[in-house]
Write a structure and sequence with these properties.
The complex is a heterodimer of chains A (64) and B (188). With 64 residues, chain A is mostly helical. Chain A has helices at 5-11, 16-23, 27-34, 42-52, 56-59, and strands at 2-3, 60-61. In chain A, helix 2 (16-23) packs across helix 3. Chain A is globular and about 30 Å long. Chain B starts with a helix and ends with a helix. The longest helix of chain B has 30 residues, at 62-91. The chains are: A mainly alpha (64), B mainly alpha (188).
Chain lengths: 64, 188
């Protein structure tokens, strides 16, 4: 699944570790999600959406 | 006074693992050369597991730290149990019930390692790390099954010598480690 995590993170000038700390996950998790190697569970996707103050569908995009 | 970054943070896990394997190699060389006897070799091997203690202190997550600590204790128990069992087997004429009992000495700690892995999967709160470990464990299991079946037939047709069945755990552990290393390299 595609996502806008890297762009959203860059807009806020957050490192992967910064985001990982806010989500209470490892930096490897953020990296894997960001690069599309791992799709987060629904609860984690909601936590990511909450951190950015956006809806899930504004962060995670359907594959066309 | 300022120390180097490495001194402040402590050595990396790779350093301690490397030092551990170096120690094992030296103890093995001493044993093969006849400089030390079997029991001394096992005592030194058990003591060498202490080299891995800093890794259990460095682990970031609670679940991983507990896993490392449990595996370390089990590894220590395994080497010690194996040493006692082999020494008793070599030195004494044992009855079957005693042989059964001494077989449990190295076996029970390996059950502990399997239990530690199960506890880690249950306790790990980071879903990606849990997923990664499960995938690595499945790859390792597939490798053990494939190698075991192939070797079994090679052995049945008398092309290769007989080996003891306990090889499955070390081979599984090595495959698990290599798969996790590959995941780590790919991730970075």
């Amino acid at each position: 699944m595609k996502n806008r995590l890297k762009v959203l993170r860059a807009e806020r000038d957050w490192s992967q570790q910064d985001l990982a700390t806010q989500l209470d996950v490892s930096r490897q998790s953020v990296n894997a999600i960001e690069t599309g190697r791992y799709d987060p569970s629904l609860p984690l996707a909601f936590r990511i959406a909450d951190v950015f103050g956006l809806a899930i569908e504004e962060i995670f995009l359907r594959e066309e | 006074m300022t120390g180097s970054v490495e001194e402040r943070r402590g050595r990396s896990p790779r350093f301690w693992v490397g030092l551990y394997f170096l120690s094992v190699a030296i103890i093995g060389a001493l044993r093969i050369s006849g400089a030390i006897n079997g029991p001394t070799g096992f005592i030194l091997l058990a003591a060498a597991t202490g080299i891995l203690i800093p890794i259990t202190r460095k682990a970031h997550g609670g679940a991983m730290a507990r896993y490392n600590r449990r595996v370390l204790i089990c590894t220590f128990g395994y080497v010690l149990g194996l040493g006692i069992a082999v020494t008793l087997w070599n030195e004494y004429e044992l009855t079957d019930p005693v042989v059964f009992a001494i077989s449990l000495l190295p076996t029970l700690p390996t059950f502990g390692i399997i239990w530690a892995m199960a506890r880690y999967l249950a306790e790990e709160q980071d879903e990606y790390l849990r997923h990664r470990t499960i995938m690595a464990a499945l790859v390792a299991l597939g490798f053990v099954l494939a190698v075991g079946i192939f070797y079994g037939f090679l052995e049945m047709f008398e092309l290769v010598p007989h080996i003891w069945a306990w090889w499955v755990l070390p081979v599984w552990a090595v495959a698990l480690g290599l798969t996790q290393f590959w995941h780590k390299v790919r991730g970075s």
